[in-house]
Design goal:
Elements lengths: L3 H17 L7 H16 L6 H28 L14 H4 L3 H31 L5
Helix pairs in contact: 1-3, 2-3, 2-5
């Protein structure tokens, strides 16, 4: 963030690339919800406290301040920033999920991660008991 102009140029390019892939400006709200959910799940309540959440809200809000107007502009103009649109056709139908599907996916992934953590903890404990180290 030493160069705010370069940061904004990167965000503009990001918004254009997402538009090329079929992402709509209104979908960035869902992305934010998923981001905060994943952070909360991965970091846990002892780390992802209110002050940490507020910092992430500020960071994401700052990003959206640049991204959303570009996304809306692209939608209004039907803009494609590549001269050859066939290089990267929208793949929206193949990767977009509803909000409920997205949350269900991350909840399932979180449960799987918890199982993996339990298995890894048991494995490490067994190695320590056998004198093999962690």
């Amino acid at each position: 963030l030493d160069d705010p102009q370069q940061y904004d140029r990167n965000l503009i390019k990001l918004a254009e690339n997402h538009y090329d892939r079929g992402v709509k400006s209104v979908e960035y709200a869902v992305v934010g919800e998923v981001l905060f959910y994943v952070l909360r799940q991965c970091l846990g309540p002892n780390v992802y406290m209110q002050d940490v959440h507020q910092v992430w809200v500020k960071v994401y809000s700052r990003m959206l301040k640049t991204i959303v107007p570009i996304a809306v502009d692209c939608e209004l103009k039907g803009y494609r920033h590549h001269s050859e649109p066939e290089l990267r056709p929208p793949v929206r139908a193949s990767y977009m999920f509803s909000h409920a599907q997205t949350l269900a996916f991350f909840q399932a992934a979180s449960s799987a991660d918890d199982s993996d953590k339990d298995a890894n903890t048991e494995l490490k404990s067994e190695k320590i008991r056998r004198g093999e180290g962690a």
